Amino acid sequence: MIPEKPKELQATPDQWKAIATRGNNLLVSASAGSGKTKVLVERILMHIQEGIDINELLVVTFTELAAKEMKERLRTKLEEAIEKSTDEILQQRFAKQLQLIPSAMISTIHSFCMKVIRRYFYLAGIDPVFTMMDEIEGQLLQEKVWRAVEEELLEQPEYEEVFATFSNDRSDDGITNTVYRLYQYSRSKREPKTWLSHLTQNYAVGTDYASTPFVKTYVKPALIEELSYLARQYDQLLKEIELLGAPKYQAVLEDDLDFVKVVLVHIQEESYVFAYQTFADRKFKNWSTAKVDDTVKESLDEIKAIREGLKKDFQKIKEDYFAISPEVQLQQMTKVNRILAKLSDIAVKFYDRFQDEKHQLNKLDFSDLEHDTLKILTKLDANGQKIASEYYQNHFKEVMVDEYQDVNRVQEAILELVSKPNNRFMVGDVKQSIYGFRLADPSLFREKYEAYAEGKSGERIVLAENFRSRDEVLSFTNKVFQQIMNKELGQVEYDDVAALKTGNLSYSQDDDKSSEIILIEDLDLNENSNDLEESEEFEKVENEIHYIAQRIQEMIHTPFEVMNEKAEAKRPVNYGDFAILSSTKSNNDKIESIFAAYGIPVNVQKAQSYFKRTEITTMVSLLKVIDNPLQDIPFVAVLRSGLVGLDEIALAHIRKTLKNTSYYEAVCQFVSDFEFQEVDYYDSKQQLALKERLEAFLTLLNKWRDRANNESIAHLIWEIYMDTHYLEYVHGQSNGAQRSVNLHALYEHAHQYESSSFKGVRNFIRFIEALQKKEKDLDEAPIATDSNAVQVMTIHASKGLEFPVVFLIDTNRKFNMQDLKASIMCSDEIGVGTNYFDLSTRITYPTVQAVATRNFEKKKLLSEEMRKLYVAMTRAREKLIIVGTLKNYESFKKKYAFLTTESSEILPYQARFKSGTFLSWMLLSAIREQYKIVPEIVAKTDIVSNSKHYIHEISGKEIFQEDWHEYYSEANSPRELKARVQSMLKTIQQDYQFNVESKTTSYQSVSELKRVLEDPIIEELSQNSLIEEGRRAIYLSPTLEQPRFMQTSSTNVTGAQRGSALHLLMQKVDFTSEITLNSLEQLLRGLVESNEITPEVAAKVPLTQAYEFFQSTFGQLIVQNSHALVREQAFSYVLEANNFFKSIHTDDLMMIHGIIDGYIELDDEIIVFDYKTDYVVDSTEGIQSIVRKYKDQLNIYADALSISCNKKVTRKVLCLLSINKNIDIDTLKVI
Fold it and tell me: Which position among 609, 696, 826, 1167 has the lowest Cβ density within 10 Å, counted as fewest Cβ atoms?
């Protein structure tokens, strides 16, 4: 019977029930913002009032910080209770509890485990003075043990097949990572070695494929589900195409659907051989090319695009399940079984050796704490009693667990062993379980959630009322998750019981608080690739950041109003009320830079990893040099850094001394054999200064190397700071405070590292490299943040926090599925899945176990991503804005149009499972009109336009002046100081005299100048002027050509490639023999063989154009005067810039450079010519047009030649190869 709630306690009926219910196990499912911490504290206080001391309770929290905050809340509550109470006995009782708080068992599970081990160490055979091993030391020790085990195994032939399967010729990382993964996963099991010993359990083979247990249990249901979903999508496409009246196109889709149905029947009847043959024989019909009315063509194109997607889905099914015949699959299963048996032996051997090594060193890691505690609690004494378990069961009157959704199986076993059958109190929210990477198992919560709902072993209480957020936020969240989250995907039913309910009714009714989905449409976005190009991803997010910056400024200046902390009155929003959440920190640097342009203060954790910071990479390079100075790259990096400060000229000058040794040896010889050299880039004083600088550095380096043998790394690092003043140096750079703190942190990390069992510079460097290789990092050292600034953080970091206004950004970022590409995957449901690798052919074949395991693990990953989305959306108190970028929303709606008739509230599993982004889930929930979720479309061009307005407005304001005038007002500043400030402002704000000149370059290529001449907004050469303000100077090249190794190969040969190849051919022609088509073909083959032209380009070279040119009158003139012919002549010459750019009024010079195709230098004249492969219309107008295009280019050639050769250029000929005409550009006559 639950007692009556005290009048002074503010609690809902469900909260009071959770506080006061006794005599049974309780699971409190507390939705976001439902007051679960309040319930925990009040329940503890009630226990105290009932006569239970606080140290008779076990309260397990997820983090040490949470435990500390819990104790502080209890302390405050007890102090308040002492003041309010008039009962002297009760006051004394509360005072006693205050004294017991420091020793109370309110801690993380690991802290509790440590206390158990300290008390009962002898039951587990552990030395009572053990020390904890951090992750850093654990990784190094793990690697040390594995290398020893690996060396032994490589000498045993029976393991060759395993090593060959999981590694490759270049590296053994494959087998290493596989063993590490198995070990790590096994530690989440109650019996790790037992699990490792049974890796083969799912590879048992039946009499045939259909009777194989794994096929019956997993493969058949999965295939039926995927094929049924495909058939449903085809049905929808057929409905749409019938309305368009396109029978030929309809026939293609009907053929596809018939095929899907045939395969589906084969699977249902377990005729897998027939299914395989059907797949093997299948050839999709080509999409019809029949002419259709323009009114339906666009719709047909969209249907075609959807069909292509369905064909890919079908091909994926084939690759996963029917790449090879069922019979061969059975054979491969048998082979995989054999390999896994040996892998199991290896994993167990490593497990034993690693545990033994830790035991020898008397070290424990967090996983050991759990397993040793479990061992202690299950240990029987001589009388068959679990003495430790019984002690804690008798001692603790109740076991309370916060964040129960993040508990794993081992931790659950420990909690069971210290609890009585009916004294557990668990609180959490499975919808907020986002720590799968820590091996949290939300299925534990779900199992109790379902069992306790039926009264089995306990009672379930649901706290659904949210006291944090407005109804607009909560109802929007419910609309989304009622459609996308269920037990199948999300691992919990989002039904009426789980749905959020509005608990805070004090919010005012406002029209501007509705939640929004902002869709930025970007027609250039590539949505088909699995990994978006970095630049594309960068630009996509950049648009979103600009949009958010604009919205924040708009809401600040409107102003947008929010409720104050006590929810009693409205106030204008400030920057500190905004939070930007994202899945990763990768956008943080860009947010910081863009927000700075908008004048928005922001608190952001740097995305750049700690070890990639310039000051840290420099120090790590120096440590590498101290360890071994013969490493060129780190050695030169140190010389180039601020520690020494050499530039490229100095580095090249040194290398000339000794070219074939290490750079360190070259420096040493440069210093020891120093002598002045006659060079045009250094005078004697500069050479001497370089030598002295290197001498000083080598002296320090030798000193540091000596100290490294005797001192700790931390002392060595500090000595380097003192010797070089590097701390002061970085402090003077941009973001200097952060850089300086990072260097201090490196010293602390080194000190922490050496407190482990590892010592020495080399091991420290290896540790850093191992972290970088595993893509792990140390956190950047924190510095103080601004309270009135926009908060930028990851969704994980935001858990437990709340903000008035939340933006969720980069929602179209693909989920990280890298774990699914591992060579071996582990699943609680299935076990282990791995592919079959044929050692003879070096081909990998998917096994159905690997496919099923991958799908199960993908389901778990997607479920966690879905819960992350829930966490993000429930951080908002008043306004939630979700921002994403999509290519075309209408196309998305047509692709999923078949869902509009879906009667079930939850969307089909396959539609949700195949979604790879938050945005996709959001838009799926908006497909059906009855849910009234309507995304707002924002054009990319509007954002760009608005950004110019905002940023121009900011830069146009005299913010600097306003800030200074506010500080130095008439009332509190001397007149003289104010005058100085005004003078400074006047100097800063004056126009730069040579602003026009600064917008161009003094080194111009002919091709760049030609581009100027071709631009339609530029007038003739003599009329050229700089472009209007704000537009890019078009005579500066906007892009740089990619190096060949970065260029992607393409099967399409461009016109530029074809023209370049023809140019090359013309320059290589041999005039000493007759020019024929055969000779030109032979020359072209030679160019292909020498890799000067690719075969694809060579196939497109128009040889007849070249042959016809040399048969023309002008071509024969070249042949006859080949002795006087100069080909591919590079040139450069200087002229005054105002001859070209009329807006330049100085006498600055510019250099023009280029390459002339050819010229004939006769006794008293020069004939210059240029080959052109452009397409030309063979008419007077066409020829005049092409001459206008290239006339000024040839004039530049002529000027350069007349100056350098001191001869007159009499003819300037444009050789138009495509029409076989050679035009004198001055007379326009054909030569």
Answer: 696
Q: Which residue has the tokens 């970007």?
A: 522
- Give the DSSP H/E element, type plus range, for residue 574: none
The mean pLDDT value for 788-808 works out to 94
Q: What is the pLDDT of residue 288?
A: 84
Q: How far apart are CA 770 and CA 616, in angstroms?
A: 16
Say if CB 296 and CB 288 are below 8 A apart. no
pLDDT band at 437 (very low <50, low <70, confident <90, very high): confident
Q: What residue type is 984 in one-letter code?
A: M
Rounded CA-CA distance 203/333 in Å is 6
Question: What is the tens place of the pLDDT at every residue in 1127-1181?
Answer: 999 888 887 877 767 677 777 888 888 899 999 999 889 999 999 988 888 899 8
Ordered DSSP codes for 964-1009 = HHHHS-TTTS-HHHHHHHHHHHHHHHSPPTTTTGGGS-SEEEHHHH
Buried b or exposed e, range 24-56, using 16+ CB within 10 angstroms: ebbbbbbbbbbbbbbbbbbbbbbbbeeebebbb
pLDDT tens, residue by residue, 442-462: 999 999 999 999 988 999 999
Tokens of 753: 């590292």
Q: Which residues touch 1181 (CB under 8 Å, ≥6 apart)?
A: none
Three-state DSSP at 121 gives: helix
What are the beta bridge partners of residue 193? none
Measured distance CA(884)–CA(544) in Å, rounded: 7
DSSP string, 476-500: HHHHHHHHH-BTTTBSS--STTTS-
Q: Label residues 94-109 b or e (16+ Cβ within 10 Å = b).
A: beebeeebeebbbbbb
Q: Which long-range contacts (CB under 8 A, 24 or more apart) does 640-643 make?
A: 641/614, 642/618, 642/726, 642/729, 642/730, 643/618, 643/697, 643/724, 643/726
Q: Please, which pLDDT band fits residue 534 given cuts at 50, 70 and 90?
A: very low
CB 551 within 8 A of CB 942: no
Tallying the residues shown for the chain, one arrives at: 1231
pLDDT at residue 1038, rounded to an integer: 44
* Contact predicate 508/563, CB 8 Å: yes
Angle at 925 between CA 921 and CA 927, to 5 degrees: 115
Please tell me the predicted confidence (pLDDT) of residue 527.
62
Query: What sign does the CA torsion over 1105, 1107, 1108, 1114 have?
Result: positive
Q: How many percent of the chain have pLDDT more than 90?
A: 61
What SS3 state is found at 712? coil
Please say if the pLDDT value at position 819 is more than 90: no
**Averaged pLDDT for residues 289-308:** 86
Please state, in angstroms and rounded to a whole number, the distance separating the CA atoms of residues 638 and 619. 8
Q: Which one has a higher pLDDT value, 1072 or 880? A: 880
Q: What is the DSSP string of 43-79?
A: HHHHHHHTT--GGGEEEEESSHHHHHHHHHHHHHHHH
Q: Which residues have C-beta within 8 Å of that of residue 912, sequence separation ≥ 6?
A: 484, 489, 862, 921, 924
pLDDT at position 1053 is 79
Query: 940 to each of 335, 813, 884, 926, how far by Cα in Å?
Result: 55, 18, 12, 22
CA 100 to chain centre: 47
Whether residue 523 contacts residue 487, with contact meaning beta carbons closer than 8 Å, is answered with no
Q: How far apart are CA 386 and CA 517, in angstroms?
A: 57
The DSSP secondary-structure symbol of 32 reads T
Euclidean distance between CA atoms 1085 and 423, whole angstroms: 87
Kind of pairing between the strands at 1166-1172 and 1209-1216: parallel
Q: 188-240: per-residue pLDDT in tens? A: 999 999 999 999 988 888 889 999 999 999 999 999 999 999 999 999 899 98
